[in-house]
Amino acid sequence: xxxxxxxxRPTLVCRGDWSIPKVLRKRGWVHVGDPGSWGxxxxxxxxxxxxxxxxxxxxxxxxxxxxxYDHPLxxxxxxxxxxxNSFASVSPDGQWMVSGEWGVQERLLVFPTPLLxxxxxxxxxxxxxxxxxxxxxxxxxxxxxxxxxxxxLLCVTDDHDSEARLSLWPVPRQLLAITLDDVFxxxxxxxxxxxxxxxxxxxxxxxxxxxxxxxxxxxxxxxRVDIVPRFPWNQFLTVIYRFRRP
Length: 246
Known about the structure:
With 246 residues, the protein is mostly beta strands.
């Protein structure tokens, strides 16, 4: 989810399996991640099936026009870039976009924001990697990120609550604060990671809930986290938690 502000009016935009346009699904884009937005523009992060060699970012303008940006996976990175595309988060100045991969990672990926950064094509095309954010501690299964200022991101993870999965942090499903050592630098920027605490967990149903995304609205200070509850409620419900600054 992301808060889109157009003409001074905020609108909460949510994404899910049914949000994927049919034309994109036919082209093999079967998953949409946590979207980002800036100045009325929405950026969706699409992921293909296992083995896909690229990722897709689609920009929707305030007028409703759509532009597709294909990012070929960078196999020269160490380790090589994964096909996962869990989220898109736009920096406060609109010029940079942060995205992420699945599993245990010690980096986040940085791109010039498609369409908004003048180095990118104006009508869609190929999107190259600009650099990385190198983390001082590993993170696992980051599902969303939101800038709260030019140097700080809040990330949510779906790091499960089993003993075998608590090797990184003392609590499950963390809210993490990632603080850049400096403003964006290319090709890489160092950052520190701090665990703010465990995210709330819907207790009704069976099995495990799934953290899906995060949104922060600077104008109000509202932080929202959306979580799909346990079975069978996960078939038709999403729980949104809102936190407000006092």
